[in-house]
Design brief:
Family: Belongs to the TRAFAC class myosin-kinesin ATPase superfamily. Myosin family.
Bound molecules: adenosine-5'-triphosphate, magnesium ion
Strand order of the largest sheet: 1-2-3-4
InterPro entries: Kinesin_motor_dom_sf (IPR036961), Myosin_head_motor_dom-like (IPR001609), MYSc_Myo5 (IPR036103), P-loop_NTPase (IPR027417), SH3_Myosin (IPR004009)
Pfam families: Myosin_head
Radius of gyration: 30 Å
Shape: globular
Keywords: Actin-binding, ATP-binding, Coiled coil, Motor protein, Myosin, Nucleotide-binding, Repeat
Protein name: Myosin VA
Number of helices: 23
Length: about 725
């Protein structure tokens, strides 16, 4: 077709600086034209050459009246520049950080405290319809709460986005909302306990990275339980993939887990004297990033918050001291040094202070620990013998031990928090909130980023499945004539990572080889995937790195260290020493480990594909998940966020008077319209004509105009709508 200038026609053209710039079309465009005559908004005229191959026209700009819409699906044109422009206008002009895209809430991180989270605002959203109020995280929470009660169905809120986007903050506001609107009447203050789990988990699972001062280094899924009257009665959380490497290493300008700095900042407290703590710059495990302080954060004060939250959750003072003891022990362990005796063996300096303190704090024998830090036991079929290890090996084993203790402590705390939040009365329903670490890419990316990005890839796939794929399949099954949406399918990328002969499979294989190395693994990756998988590349200048094209970005991973991190070797004899500790808590941490530890001296307690993650379990509800999923999908047919069809639905909305809304926009109604539209070649563009401006919002927001007052432009050929 061709464009004719009627009023004025604006387009978006790519710009290296501003990403997109808008320009007005000065001359009619006819098919075959090689250039467009444009005038940039800033006044400059420009001849815009069209790609001779694709002949693709630039995306059209929405009429001004639509800009600032609170639901992106209300835009006439929904493409990248339209989305970005709309979000920008809302944010810059009106400080609005929330916008809907159908049932999805898009949030912009304002990086400043906005006065929109008070109790008055919570009350304002409580009981309201999503469409009646400004977009808000509270509106999403309210919707989940309402649907749980109205439809008797459990709900989930999934928060996703790159690192620093505001996921954890949003998840906390959602939890606060539930705690406020559905607080229990009992004296137990369950909802306060549920909220108190946040500071605890953040202190042991969050850290400063170059992207976010409070970056979650683990994934968390919390299910908030409700009783029959929809009051909070408890919660249960699962955690995923804690970044253990951070315990022993931090990149430049990053920190270890907050809790370590909170401890160091509280070193002078009388009750902490025995921990022999000091400045965070004194410990190898807290000083490597060279950035022990976060602007605006008082670690000593945070420590008080952490302790208070622990107390609220029933973790007794003596248990708390036990936890701090172990954490301090980890710091001292990190300062243990080794001296090479020869290339295959090493020693620890006599009466080495860091080790003395470590052994004191852990309640274990110095001589025994010192011995097993420098030796390992090897078992063959017929005999076992003891062998010294090199200095490098010893350092790696020390670090592996520190990580192992920390990870077990982390899990122990999660267990305890779960016990404290365990409902004492029967749970009727739940709302789940998923907050994971965001997709990330740094200058140097290693195994941890690989795991995080793999997890995000899985999550995105889950989202796609939920929002697009299953819905479209449903249409197809029902033979609804719907234009298929071209959404990004992550499955090829997930296959590259987790399928047989995929990146992880090859990594596991390499780990089993006696002479396996990062380099030979890299070679195997190249041999298997290079030029065969479009999502896999090799950097031109390196033989020790690979690139994966993730949904969010291309990421280059350095192979060095992958094998070691995947194997995560912990020496059993060291664990045995810790288990012999006279302190109760330490053996408790390693209680469940018998099954995991293999009879050989080294125990690969490595990663398991995400789908089979051994996770701290939330209570299983057999058979419920799949049943529920089906119901959800069926239900979604009437709550579309289908981009290409939103134009049509929008018009339906416009011509649907308020009180008849629910009845009129039924599947059957839409289907009838679709059948009528099916044969129209131009149907996707049906309403994309810039001269027709429809001030409507979608979904849930029927037009306030009365049917009689609306004139359907005859040119649209939609006269039949009023007869349906
Ligand atoms: N709604 C908001 N209002 C004010 N500040 C915010 C908001 N959301 C996020 N921030 C700021 O941004 C910071 C980072 O947000 P947050 O920790 O939630 O990111 P994240 O998405 O969880 O990142 P990661 O994946 O690294 O865990 C917060 O510490 C806070 O300072
Ligand atoms: Mg976070």
């Amino acid at each position: 077709t061709h464009w004719k200038i009627l009023i004025s026609c604006w387009v978006w053209i790519p710009d290296p600086e501003e990403v997109w710039k808008s320009a007005e079309l000065l001359k009619d465009y006819k098919p075959g034209d090689k250039v467009l005559q444009l005038r940039l908004e800033e006044g400059k005229d420009l001849e815009y050459s069209l790609d001779p191959k694709t002949k693709e026209l630039p995306p059209l700009r929405n009429p001004d009246i639509l800009v600032g819409e609170n639901d992106l699906t209300a835009l006439s044109y929904l493409h990248e520049p339209a989305v970005l422009h709309n979000l920008k206008v809302r944010f810059i002009d009106s400080k609005l950080i929330y916008t809907y895209c159908g049932i999805v809430l898009v949030a912009i991180n304002p990086y400043e405290q906005l006065p929109i989270y008070g109790e008055d605002i919570i009350n304002a959203y409580s009981g309201q319809n999503m469409g009646d109020m400004d977009p808000h995280i509270f509106a999403v929470a309210e919707e989940a709460y309402k649907q749980m009660a109205r439809d008797e169905r459990n709900q989930s809120i999934i928060v996703s986005g790159e690192s620093g986007a505001g996921k954890t903050v949003s998840a906390k506001y959602a939890m606060r909302y539930f705690a406020t609107v559905s607080g229990s009447a009992s004296e137990a203050n369950v909802e306060e306990k549920v909220l108190a789990s946040n500071p605890i988990m953040e202190s042991i699972g969050n850290a400063k990275t170059t992207r976010n001062d409070n970056s979650s280094r683990f994934g968390k899924y919390i299910e908030i339980g409700f009783d029959k009257r929809y009051r909070i009665i408890g919660a249960n959380m699962r955690t995923y993939l804690l970044e253990k490497s951070r315990v022993v290493f931090q990149a430049e300008e990053e920190r270890n887990y907050h809790i370590f700095y909170q401890l160091c900042a509280s070193a002078a407290l009388p009750e902490f004297k025995t921990l022999r703590l000091g400045n965070a710059n004194y410990f190898h495990y807290t000083k490597q990033g060279g950035s022990p302080v976060i602007d605006g954060v008082d670690d000593a004060k945070e420590m008080m918050n952490t302790r208070q939250a622990c107390t609220l959750l029933g973790i007794s003072d003596s248990y708390q001291m036990g936890i701090f003891r172990i954490l301090a022990g980890i710091l001292h362990l990190g300062n243990v040094e080794f001296a090479s005796r020869d290339s295959d063996s090493c020693t620890i300096p006599p009466k080495h202070e860091p080790l003395t303190i470590f052994c004191d704090l852990m309640g274990v024998e110095y001589e025994e620990m010192a011995h097993w830090l420098c030796h390992r036991k090897l078992a063959t079929a017929t005999e076992t013998y003891i062998k010294p290890i090199s200095k490098l090996h010893a350092i790696n084993a020390r670090d592996a031990l520190a990580k192992h203790i920390y990870a077990n402590l982390f899990n122990w705390i999660v267990d305890h928090v779960n016990k404290a939040l365990h409902a004492t009365v029967k749970q009727h329903s739940f709302i789940g909130v998923l907050d994971i670490y965001g997709f990330e890419t740094f200058e140097i990316n290693s195994f941890e980023q690989f795991c995080i990005n793999y997890a995000n890839e899985k999550l995105q796939q889950q989202f796609n499945m939920h929002v697009f794929k299953l819905e479209q399949e449903e249409y197809m099954k029902e033979q609804i004539p719907w234009t298929l949406i071209d959404f990004y399918d992550n499955q090829p990328c997930i296959n590259l990572i987790e399928a047989k002969m995929g990146v992880l499979d090859l990594l596991d294989e390499e780990c089993k080889m006696p002479k396996g190395s990062d380099d030979s693994w890299a070679q195997k990756l190249y041999n298997t995937h290079l030029n065969k998988c479009a999502l896999f590349e090799k950097p031109r200048m390196s033989n020790k790195a690979f690139i994966i094209k993730h949904f969010a970005d291309k990421v280059e991973y350095q192979c060095e260290g992958f094998l070691e991190k995947n194997k995560d070797t912990v020496y059993e004899e060291q664990i045995k020493v810790l288990k012999s500790s006279k302190f109760k808590l330490l053996p408790e941490l390693f209680q469940d480990e018998e099954k995991v530890l293999s009879p050989t001296s080294a125990t690969p307690s490595g990663r398991v594909p995400l789908s089979r993650m051994p996770i701290k379990p939330a209570k299983a509800r057999p058979g419920q998940a799949s049943k529920e999923h089906k119901k959800t999908v069926g239900h979604q047919v009437s709550l579309k966020i289908d981009f290409s069809s939103s134009q049509i639905v929008k018009v339906l909305n416009l011509y649907t008077p308020v009180n008849e809304f629910e009845e009129r926009v039924l599947v059957s109604f839409i289907r009838t319209i679709q059948v009528r539209l099916r044969d129209r070649k131009d149907s996707p563009q049906l309403l994309m004509d810039a001269k027709h401006i429809f001030p409507v919002t979608f979904p849930f927001n029927p037009s306030s105009l009365a049917l009689e007052t609306i004139q359907i432009p005859a040119s649209l050929g939609l006269g039949f709508i009023s007869r349906v």
